[in-house]
Amino acid sequence: MPIFEFQCDSCKHEFEKLVFAGDTPDITCPECKSREVTKKMSAVSFMGKSMGTCAADAPKGFS
Predict the structure, then answer these.
(1) What is the total count of domains within the chain?
(2) Rounded to whole angstroms, how far apart are CA atoms 10 and 21?
(3) How confident is the model at residue 57, as a pLDDT?
(4) Burial class (CB within 10 angstroms; exposed 0-12, middle 13-18, buried 19+) of 2
(5) Residue 8 belongs to a domain with what CATH number?
(6) Per the CB 3.0–4.6 Å rule, which of 10, 12, 22, 58 could disulfide with 62?
(7) Is residue 21 part of a domain?
(8) What is the pLDDT of residues 31-61, one digit of tens each?
(9) Is the pTM of this model over 0.70?
(10) 49 in a domain, yes or no?
């Protein structure tokens, strides 16, 4: 059950959302209720479990 980071394209509010595998999420900004949101890239989302470390322990250039 990953938590993804999003940014609203309308008001620029940043927020997190729990998205279940296989779901097609209907993501709306909690501030302005816009559906125009962009999923942000975060260190946790591209490092994954396979590295066995947390984002704070990542090699230089990955955080």
Answers:
(1) 1
(2) 27
(3) 57
(4) exposed
(5) 2.20.28
(6) 58
(7) yes
(8) 999 999 999 986 655 555 555 555 555 556 5
(9) no
(10) no
